[in-house]
């Protein structure tokens, strides 16, 4: 634990004792969303008084304050040689006598829930993950900026610490917030005086993006002469929605009942500029909220920052005065939004494949236009290890910073030093302030807390650390669970108080051996792997979830979009290096046939068995599929609004595929994946995603089986299609590595944590070795339709895949524990359930 300071000053006075924890985290254990780079110390004060002590001790050092994790790429700061004072422990929230008290790290989402429960309202920024301190000091425009005014007007008291380390209380509102920001105070608590939520109203209209010309006309109609009543708001959002479906959203809000009709007429006049078929096809979605639900909805559905380190998020903020230049501004905005949202009319994909966005345009109280939002772009992926190295490179250790910080009297420790003897990496236990961040993973909200609270979460930096952790666990009768990405659906990459979790984040090497052979660390996520392989013109089969890492994925199969053509990820592992329970490090190679020797059986057990049961894998060697060997790879990828008849038509095509698989007449090199996903927000309809791949369509006379394999699926997908839908399509020749890269879901296809929905879930997988029947199709379609369209608070993700194919009789499968390559059809249900929010 942290070393504490109570030294005497030159005058003999005893310096306050810092009660929190001081940690020197390794880069591998730092959360990507921290926004802090370089080696530094992190101090975790446990109370406002402790914050004052920390600030006082660090006032002559390079010091940064963090109250949350909502950081964009543009926020990144080099903290090398400095101190980060992390306020994670300060997250209490309460309402007393009409005053809401929020400690610095309480989130906007938590505040919105507390307000709603007490029928109160504040003009919060639309970012549920932003901290209270950040929201007050740095803020951002609220949808209710004209209706309720600036958030600073509702601040009745600030508890703060000056840069000199003195605690102080600032009373009164408005200017005091600006003064505190200018003085560089550290906020520890904010007191708000909210107003009653009674009388608040909000209506929203969502439409599919209609194209640049119509968007420009809509902007002009809404904001050229808006004639807005003084206590009302009008907001236009343009956003990349699920599976790249582009959406516009108009929000009208206010606090005077009579104004709702007035603003509604303005919105109706603006909508009249859109193409008539949007109205004829009934695709405009509307929603109305009132009272406390307005605040909660606005906080929950605003812009946010993803935690995918392969997506750069850059904030946008601009104020435009009304005048002669406003038309030029409207024109540039229309061009920028079109670049971020539009698809090419020739079905070759997005206009700019690298760009996704969330923009918001609104009027402020001074009649000025305010543009805000976030632009999302993929971050370039580099090779982390020189390509001349053919073996696993050692992980570098971070030098101590204590020599730079001795003046504070606080000596930083590696997190949890001494908890595991001879272990040099970071270790976190439940009493640590930031333990929840390190223990959390995909399944945390879906299983009992007792099963998701391991005794220790440890970050080994090298093989010696793994050996030390294994010796510790064996000596104390504890289980060891390895975690590469923390995405295990059943929560098996976590554990109870008898478990030590080894987070393999440091093992993320990517080493080129030959043009098709690569050493890959278990902590490389699919987002990185797919991009790295794309740069090399190769691929292996893999799944689509962004934060799934190679470790668990390769050991449990690695199902994905190329199942029939190329099998599973584990089929392409030719060797792995593992640390066994006794601490022995061993490299095991793929046997030529059925397991014979103990090493053969170990290979069989690790690949396809229970991940982590036999040891800790530190490296995988892959033999990849080359694009050059499949020059005719071809795809059809389409996003469509869900309709029961459309889904049934596509399932009838799936039925035909199962019949051909049973007869063995279906070409072995084709794959068909379909996803049905419930509406993730009121403005987004349920969606169907269709993905068909032919690994090599080239034949002497053209494209093989194009009319038989692709055309019926395209026709079913396009049946009764809305006019805007067909552009959300990609069809044509495309390299396999590019397809594999595109199949990995990235923001904003998922939540910021890589999930489809933020709620707890249940998962079920079913397979069959026979063809689908008419009765089965009818029953399945009815079941899915009931959940998707008529079951409140339940959110479905349905996916299907086909087996057999090229790898039905692959000799590689005898060396793994997944023999069912002859399955005909497989479908997966993920059911997320919301028990605490209103639909």
Structure commentary:
The protein is α+β, with helices and mostly antiparallel strands and 839 residues long. The protein has 19 helices and 40 strands. The strands form ten sheets. Strands 17-14-16-15-19-20-18 form a seven-stranded antiparallel sheet, with helices on both faces. The chain has a seven-stranded antiparallel sheet with strand order 37-32-34-33-39-40-38. Helix 2 (108-117) runs antiparallel to helix 8 (292-300). The longest helix is centred in the C-terminal third of the chain and has 20 residues, at 644-663. It is globular, with a radius of gyration of 28 Å. The chain starts with 20 loop residues before the first strand and ends in a 6-residue tail after the last strand.
Structure at a glance:
The chain contains 19 helices and 40 strands. By secondary structure, it is of the alpha+beta class. Helix 12 runs antiparallel to helix 18, helix 16 runs antiparallel to helix 17 and helix 16 packs antiparallel against helix 19.
Write the layout of secondary structure elements.
Layout: E1 21-23, E2 36-37, E3 41-44, H1 48-58, E4 63-66, E5 77-78, E6 83-86, E7 93-96, E8 99-103, H2 108-117, E9 120-121, H3 132-137, E10 155-161, E11 167-171, H4 175-182, E12 186-192, E13 195-196, E14 201-208, H5 212-223, E15 232-240, E16 246-254, H6 259-271, H7 276-280, E17 285-290, H8 292-300, E18 311-320, H9 326-341, E19 356-363, E20 369-378, E21 426-428, H10 435-439, E22 456-459, H11 463-476, E23 479-483, E24 499-503, E25 510-512, E26 517-520, H12 526-536, E27 538-539, H13 550-555, H14 563-566, E28 573-579, E29 585-589, H15 598-606, E30 616-623, E31 625-626, E32 634-641, H16 644-663, E33 670-677, E34 687-694, E35 698-699, E36 702-703, H17 706-718, E37 729-733, H18 736-743, E38 761-768, H19 774-790, E39 794-802, E40 825-833
Parallel strand pairs: 2-5, 3-6, 4-6, 22-24, 23-24
Antiparallel strand pairs: 1-3, 7-8, 8-12, 9-13, 10-11, 10-12, 14-16, 14-17, 15-16, 15-19, 18-20, 19-20, 21-22, 25-26, 26-30, 27-31, 28-29, 28-30, 32-34, 32-37, 33-34, 33-39, 35-36, 38-40, 39-40
Helix pairs in contact: 2-8, 5-6, 5-9, 12-18, 16-17, 16-19
């Amino acid at each position: 634990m942290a070393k504490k300071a109570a030294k005497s000053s030159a005058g003999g006075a005893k310096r306050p004792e810092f009660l929190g924890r001081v940690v020197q985290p390794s880069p591998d254990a730092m959360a990507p969303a921290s926004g802090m780079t370089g080696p530094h110390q992190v101090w975790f004060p446990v109370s406002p008084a402790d914050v004052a002590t920390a600030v006082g001790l660090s006032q002559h050092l390079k010091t940064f304050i963090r109250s949350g994790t909502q950081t964009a790429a543009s926020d990144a700061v080099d903290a090398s040689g400095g101190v980060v004072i992390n306020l994670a422990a300060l997250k209490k929230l309460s309402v007393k006598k009409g005053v809401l008290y929020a400690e610095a790290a309480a989130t906007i989402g938590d505040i919105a829930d507390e307000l709603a429960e007490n029928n109160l309202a504040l003009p919060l920024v639309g970012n549920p993950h932003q901290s209270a301190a950040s929201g007050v000091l740095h803020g951002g425009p609220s949808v209710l900026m004209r209706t309720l005014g600036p958030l600073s007007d509702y601040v009745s008291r600030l508890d703060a610490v000056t840069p000199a380390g003195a605690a102080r209380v600032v009373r009164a509102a408005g200017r005091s917030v600006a003064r505190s920001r200018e003085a560089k105070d550290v906020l520890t608590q904010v007191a708000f005086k909210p107003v009653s939520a009674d009388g608040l109203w909000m209506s929203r209209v969502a439409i599919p993006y209609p194209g640049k010309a119509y968007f420009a006309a809509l902007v002009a109609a809404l904001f050229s002469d808006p004639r807005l009543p003084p206590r009302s708001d009008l907001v236009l959002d343009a956003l990349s929605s699920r599976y790249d479906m582009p959406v516009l959203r108009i929000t009208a809000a206010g606090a005077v009942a009579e104004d709702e009709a007035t603003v509604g007429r303005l919105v109706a006049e603006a909508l009249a500029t859109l193409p008539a078929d949007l109205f004829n096809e009934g695709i405009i979605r509307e929603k109305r909220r009132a009272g406390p639900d307005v605040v909660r909805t606005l906080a929950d559905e605003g812009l946010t920052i993803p935690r995918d380190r392969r997506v750069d998020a850059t904030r946008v903020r601009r104020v435009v005065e009304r005048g002669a230049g406003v038309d030029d501004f409207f024109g540039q905005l229309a061009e920028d939004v079109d670049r971020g949202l539009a698809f090419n009319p020739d079905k070759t994909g997005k206009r700019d494949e690298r760009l996704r966005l969330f923009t918001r345009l609104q009027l402020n109280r001074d009649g000025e236009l305010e543009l805000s939002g976030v632009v999302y772009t993929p971050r370039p992926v580099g090779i982390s290890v020189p390509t001349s190295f053919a073996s696993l490179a050692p992980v570098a250790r971070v030098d101590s910073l204590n020599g730079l910080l001795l003046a504070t009297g606080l000596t930083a420790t590696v997190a949890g030093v001494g908890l595991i003897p001879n272990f040099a990496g970071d270790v976190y236990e439940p009493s640590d302030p930031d333990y929840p961040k390190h223990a959390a993973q995909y399944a945390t909200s879906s299983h009992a807390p007792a099963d998701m609270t391991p005794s220790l979460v440890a970050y080994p930096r090298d093989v010696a650390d793994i050996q030390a952790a294994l010796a510790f666990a064996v000596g104390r009768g504890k289980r060891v669970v390895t975690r590469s990405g923390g995405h295990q659906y059943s929560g098996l990459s976590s554990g109870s108080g008898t478990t030590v979790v080894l987070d393999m984040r440091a093992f993320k090497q990517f080493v080129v051996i030959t043009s098709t052979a690569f050493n890959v660390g278990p902590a490389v996520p699919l987002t990185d792997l797919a991009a790295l392989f794309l740069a090399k013109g190769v691929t292996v089969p893999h799944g689509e979830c962004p934060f799934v890492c190679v470790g668990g994925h390769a050991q449990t199969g690695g199902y994905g979009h190329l199942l029939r053509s190329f099998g599973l990820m584990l089929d392409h592992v030719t060797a792995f290096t593992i640390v066994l329970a006794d601490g022995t490090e061993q490299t095991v190679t793929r046997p030529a046939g059925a397991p014979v020797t103990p090493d053969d059986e170990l290979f069989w057990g690790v690949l396809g068995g229970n991940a982590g049961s036999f040891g800790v894998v530190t490296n995988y060697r892959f033999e990849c599929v080359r694009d050059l060997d499949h020059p005719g790879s071809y795809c059809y990828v389409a996003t469509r609004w869900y309709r029961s008849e459309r889904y049934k038509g596509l399932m009838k095509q799936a039925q035909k595929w199962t019949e051909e698989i049973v007869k063995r007449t279906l070409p072995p090199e084709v794959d068909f994946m379909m996803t049905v996903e419930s509406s993730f927000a009121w403005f987004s309809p349920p969606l169907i995603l269709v993905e068909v791949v032919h690994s090599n369509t080239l034949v002497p006379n053209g494209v093989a089986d194009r009319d038989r394999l692709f055309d019926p699926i395209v026709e079913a997908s396009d049946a009764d299609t809305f006019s805007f839908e067909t552009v959300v399509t990609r069809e044509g020749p495309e390299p396999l590595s590019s397809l594999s890269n595109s199949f990995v879901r990235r923001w904003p296809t998922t939540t910021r944590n890589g999930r489809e929905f933020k709620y707890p879930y249940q998962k079920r997988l079913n397979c069959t070795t026979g063809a689908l029947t008419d009765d089965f199709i009818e029953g399945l379609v009815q079941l899915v339709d009931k959940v998707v369209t008529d079951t409140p608070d339940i959110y479905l993700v349905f996916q299907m895949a086909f087996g057999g194919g090229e790898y039905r009789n692959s000799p590689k499968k005898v060396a793994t524990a997944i023999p069912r390559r002859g399955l005909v059809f497989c479908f997966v249900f993920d059911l997320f359930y919301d028990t605490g929010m209103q639909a």
